[in-house]
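Two proteins were folded this term; both appear here.
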Amino acid sequence: MKHYDILIIGGGPAGLTAAISARNTYPDKKIALIRREKIALIPCGIPYIFGTLEKIEDDILPDAPLEKNNVDLIINEVTGSKDNTVILKNGEEVSFDKCVLATGSKPAVPPIPGIDKDGVWFVKKNIEYLRNMKEVLNSAKEIVIIGGGFIGVELADELAKKGKKITIVEMQDSLLPTAMDKEFGDMALEVIKDKGINVLCNTRVKEITGSKSADGVILDNNNKLKADAIVVSAGYKPNLEIAEMFDIDVDHKYGIKVDEYLRTSREGIFAIGDCVRKRCCFTGDYTSIMLASTAMAHGRLAGSNLYDIKVVKGFQGTCGTFSTKIGNIAFGVAGLTEKQAKKVELNYVVGYNETVDRHPGKLPGASKIYTKLIYSRYSHILLGAQIKGGDSIGEMINMYSVIIQNKMTDMEINSMQIGTHPLLTSSPVAYPVINATVDAIMKWYK
């Protein structure tokens, strides 16, 4: 039987980060990482293997960091457990002192009749499955995508580059409905329609048709859509099987139950990433948000505190921070949307700004930036940000995320010192972070 001081189960961003953090903190410990897949993929890059990237292997999460940090990689599957030991599929046993579960998530399967037919695909994190899926989608002419979240929209955008006839079916009233307010979802809708993609919001798939292989869908209005292939992108569920093998407490909807240091109900076992139950940093409600950035924050915290608390908790809950790019337009979201603020009855004020990300705006590469900020009316802290524009959005939304997590007030942001340059940023007198804040301040005074 092999024995390790630290055993990490799961090889995605969370597991990889935990391994590196553990090595940095405990240089003398013997560490191993177990994963099922011989080749690990970058989850956020999967939609791009169907268009922008030439081959699936261009989206590989490299093993070099594990090798560099002297972490043993075990390609196998955990099928059982006893005490502080896991049993692998080939019958081998591996024991440990400390264990980190980073088992990730799997696609949610909505209860649609016919969803188990051939020709219905899910966005899985498995290279062989995706290779077969790509081959089928390459030959398909008409494709229906069930779900208008980030994966569904990004996949549609990529497939449209290959001239496919795409229809997105989204049951809510706008695209990206769980991440952003309807006005931003409608902006994304216009961009995606300009790509020639058909979008049906407020619509459900009632049935997937065909005998053995799917040939289309029936909608809740009884209209029918033909399809050579169907992709289901209806969110993800936490992988809980291994946690249950260890008899660890779980919430089947939200994930493995952990304390503020990511310790499970079983002594010596931690859990991180998509498989963990998380709370919103503002409301305290459980959230289904699954992000690589959250997973890596978990990995760094857990990896540092396996034997004792060396790093005092700085992770105050999930601040959902998203970004995506549809065509040439980028979108970013951090914190609460206005819809979410209303739902939990927060008293808020909204600040808006529209400008360009160069100064003067006639410079090459300039793009319009539209900003919406949600502030607490009485405590004055920033609750949420949504932005649309060019590539500068990607890092600007990270700036908003830091502001939100540090509970900066409107007056602190109003007097914030920034660096600007004509070729890189908006004008200092029209900087969107500050000017949208000023708009909120003026409404507060009124």
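Next, the second protein.
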Amino acid sequence: MNAFASPPPSDGALEVRRAVQAARAATPLHAIVLAAPARSAEFLLGLGLSAEASYFAEPGALELVGLGRVRTLSARGAERFRSIREQAERVFAELPPSSELRLFGGFAFQAGRAESELWRPFGEAFFALPRLTYERHGDSARLTLVVTAEELRDGDVDAASELAARVLAALHGTQPEPLSAGAGNATLREAPGELWRDQVRAIRDAIARGELEKLVLARRIDVELGAAVPPARVLERLRELAPKCVRFAFDNGGPCFLGAAPERLVSKRGTAFETEAVAGSVRVGAEPTSRLLESLKDREEQAIVLRKLLRDLQPLAESIEHAAEPEMHVLKHVAHLRTRVRGTLNARRHVLELVERLHPTPAVAGVPTERALQWIAEHEVNERGWYAGPVGWMDGQGNGDFVVALRSGVLSGNTLAGYAGAGIVRGSEAESELAETRWKLAALLDALGVER
């Protein structure tokens, strides 16, 4: 093994060196677990120690950051869920059985609809096993370094060890200077409102003919910022602006897809699972949020989502529980109707089996699903890419957490392509639905420092 060059390494470097020296390559991949101080996930991202990064942070719970890549998985087409699951099983077979590592990534909303220049770096499905994984839960944290058997055998571990040492030293160090506060002046560009009105009219006509029951129409807003804003700063602000949402980011060494999701697609531990049906929207502060509970249109929209979710889960579940009435899910800018669903599976299953069965929900596509997807592919002006797709993590036991990638966009330097949608049902009004898409982007734009 090559020694570290002088000057003498810091305590963090010595700790990493000793751990690597003690490692034995009994499997193709070896995981080295190091104790680490608890810092925010955004702090670690803001250090800029790796161009390839993954980030997934649950409100008041688990925070995860992945830096660098040891293994990558990708897939295309209708079989992409099954393909990723099979590739993941092969990757985890390379690790010791006791490993608690995760793969991070996600899926495009639709197969064949991530071909544009904006979405090409992410593909239709992409997951990664990070070189370094930082895991924080409350006041405890750990850092896991992954090295290959070949690297250990050949002594080719300097780069990996140096990255781990730098991360440890930074985590033990003092708080750095605050990240840039905002973007200053910004220019927003969006499709003409008449296009939106025409599309809503066409959807309502299809509903009247019985072709659709509901369709979720999405739109893109392009933002040119006055200055580049680091993704870590946006996520740091989203912690404050969207404290009830799951924050996520995926950076493949170029554009960064990030957001704050208000809706969990599915969480699975063993045979226990949790999901939720979220739909209906009202702007917080503009009118009483209780209006949602009194709105027949919003109640119908949310009921459609719940019925489809329960129907999809029924063949896999031994038991399913949910409240008889929806609750209010009040965020900073928008409130929704939500029904939480819990249950037990009737067999051991991989989380991606549930993801594939549940995606896309009527909350992001429509009913009937296939007709809604066809309409979206034929009529929406911009590819959704990963917007409204499932993003999250999975482990070697087939457990995982996935959210619906809403309130999101692609940040690249000083530009953002932000996406939002609205559910169109019988009785929807084009202007109010257009306004709804703007509310939904409020937290992301505020996090960028954009004045609206």
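The longest strand covers residues 214-225. The CA atoms of residues 28 and 149 lie 5 Å apart. These notes refer to the second protein only.
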